[in-house]
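Supplementary Note 3. Input sequence used for the single-chain structure prediction.
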Amino acid sequence: MPTPLVAVGTGVEAVTVAVVVTDAVDAVADIVPCGEPSGPRDPGERARRLPYADAVRDDIALARYRVALALITALVAVSAACWAVLTPAFRAPDEVQHLNSALRLAHGGGWPAPGEALVSPGVDAARDEAALDTDVPGRYIDRTDKDQYVDVPPTPDGERTVVGPGNALADDVAPGTDTSTWDVEEIDQMTQHPPLYYAVAAGWLRLTGAADARWDHQLLALRLLDVLLFAPVPLLAAGATRLVTGSRTAALVAAAVPLFLPQLGHIMGSVTNDALVVLTGAGAAYLCARVVTGDLRWSTAAILGGVVGLGLLTKVMAAFTVPVVVVAYLLVAARARGAGEDRALGPRRLALVGLSLGVAFALGGWWWLRNLMEFGTVQPVGIPERFEPVADRGPWYFVSTTVGHLTWSFFGSFGLLDVRVPHVVYWTGAVVLAALCVVALARVPHRRALAVLLLQPALLWGAVIANAWPRFAETGWVVAVQGRYMFGAIAALAVGVGSGIWVLATLRRHARARRADAAGAWIVPAVLAGGITVAAVGMEFAFRGFYRGPGEDLGTALARWSGWSPLGGAQLGGWFLVAVLVAAAAVVVGLRYARSVRTVAPTADATARTPTAAAGATGSE
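The predicted structure, written as discrete structure tokens, is reproduced below.
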């Protein structure tokens, strides 16, 4: 049996890849700024566009920016990878079903209708071996009828089930069978979604040799796949932030924002189709930022449609990016100044919107039309009813419960949403996040672009609450309200938060953008230090909630973690040592970047210029 790939690359390899990516992105941006046509340039134009009198010294600042962005990107990815080995098996939302659907496709089982897919014997055995029907010690409410996770000895490695051709497929269910009264544990509801993520996951299992392997190896392999899908998100957030602010400093801050959301790392380090939703949502946010700052190229519209289409072939949450695309083209900052030229942009905008939405429909939108025609609803439900109706609890109960659940599960509700951070933590986080976005909207150079981006999380927030109302009105229960549904807009939120921090740090000098950036460069290492602290505290909180029983010492909890993990104690130690080294390196290069920006004096011409879409693409320091 081939050995499954269950190890992540070294920090050096991750940084090298990120440097290559950021160098390529910045090289293209420097040559072809957003919204400007390609073609021959005046040889002196590059020098005139430099924001410093000394081109060599600006090159140093640019190089340090790229290295800093690469290390921040690696740090965010490594943080998610730490969650991948920290979280106990199947202690993340729907991991049993996600693994089951990936294995079904890997072994040729197809994609049954919603409600007609069953959990396979192999995955069902894995669920039992992982002691999933127990409560972890940090659960927010103790249940006396459940055994405790800390009282169950870990299943020895040699006794863990190998899931392969003989047990990876469940019995077929006859088409049209009503499974609404079946045991919910029997049903794999993931076929209510399109199959793209699971096809990618199945291919990854085949590629890594984990399609026929122990279930814990399969789970870790897929968790690491999701880390890889998540890895480009900081780069995309940074790119969008440069377009909105014209600031490399703000871009670095935005790239580090995911570190302040331990729940995001927890979910991105689990097996979930949300990983592909997050990636496509971030790509769409970056491309919408390009559009609204003046990029009216046909290729951009086609690529934007392709990204949205891939999201639509993953999960319905991507549909709420479609209005953002339309608004981006309607509010595009026209470069044309003449009245006739401005009017001429109207038909072009409509044509670009049509192209983008047409590509999106061709790739993924058709799935939802097919659902409507075949099942009579856009989003069918593949899971049996789990709750008996209760008495009407009133609108206030609905509002308070949905908003509260959405907030705490966005910031910190680990495991099966049962290891929850204190109320003060998530409400403080929500207030700070909202306040920073408001500050950014009031002061960033491209407020229109930021407003378009923040429309994405606003629509998702409203959609989640609106979707919960019909079930509440029918049964009195609030269901399907989880903060992870907002993560598809995490790049847009990172732009708002990063821009808000940058505005506050440079408030007194904001009229002179380049001098403001030099004065505010200190926020990069400061934000990194804060983000690393929050990420580490979040992991420590979850570790205690998962593995440390009442009155137990740290050594006992560590031994329990090692016993349940597919990795040994030394491997786990090495895993987190890499994370510590990457974190330290990120802070060091953040300091070096801040020093390089502060020691380069902008020219009078540079400080007088207002950031434009081109400045956002080429940087401002």
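The chain is about 60% helix and 0% strand. The mean pLDDT is 86.
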